[in-house]
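Q: Could you write out the predicted structure for this multi-component system? I'm mainly interested in how the pieces pack against one another.
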Amino acid sequence: MWLTSKLKQVLLVIKPGKVTLNYPAESRPVPEGFRGQPAWDHTKCIGCGGCANHCPARTILTRDICPEIRILFYDGARCTYCGRCADVCPEKAIVMSPDFELATGDRNDITQSLELFMLTCQRCGRCYDLEIKNAIDKLDLRGYRYDSLEARTVIRTTSDRFAPRLLEATEAYRRPDRIGD
Amino acid sequence: MLAKLARKAFPKSLWLYHCNSGACNGCDIEILNVLTPYYDVERFGIKLVGSPRHADVMLLSGAVTRPTFPLVKRAYAAMPGPKLVFGVGSCALGGGCWFDTYNVTGGGATAIPIDYYIPGCPPRPEAIVYGVALALGLVDKKAAPVELKQVEFPIDAQLRTKAWEERNVIYKLLRD
């Protein structure tokens, strides 16, 4: 009995043949609608900051280094490839490319930076003042943040960064046995 | 350079230890998919082991949460050297969407040094195989930083404003 079942198993295994994809040598095309690394088109971008506003991982950082130049910085390390930036872009300057072979030894390899020239006001010759003045403006203009591109962090006001030293201190803390010791 | 070093340090089979530090199981399922016959990584001599003490390579998935933070550190310390760490998925790389939540330490790099980054949410099985092949020196790196600049834009803007001035009569009146 066991022999017939084994033979059946062997036949079952033989039927599909070899299914292994010899991956680095050959590759299958990606499925339709696959979202890989987002690709920016700097000729179309108007610098509205909508992508930075809508990014769930807050991985697109904006900063105005001077009134005329705005820098959009995309840090691919945190990107979840949700395609939200491509959806909200009014100029269709972002497309989700089918590239997925992004493995790298350096975090800088999956970054993109975009330097945009902003139009100036015809009357005063300056750009719209994006330095946030008060808390109500801050709530209103979440996309126009003043991020730290060097530290690659969103300037946050609600919570502090996780501090490992603090955790070690709390883990090592021992309650005193007696009050006054 | 790191690939060369890895080839020298790991001339034979790599044994993987799969460390889940609070992932949503998306990356874990893709890692399992890599081990199935469809993307058989045992072609490269890679084997999944249950203990970090037997492993050469750690596949870290998930944003390192506060309860798992010391455990990930201990698992890394338990691995015999030389050791490699692969960060799989956007959570292990930088924390993903949860990079600033109260219970997330902000990616694997805060706990242990990560040698190879495999971005994706979750990364495709091909992407994980690609990362492993990159570490073994079988493929070349494709990712490169992109810097885009709008150089022609101010000239366009100037021409546009000039044309606008010519179209508008009020400027002529002001000039006269």
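A: Regarding packing and overall arrangement: The first strand of chain B starts at residue 15 and ends at 20.
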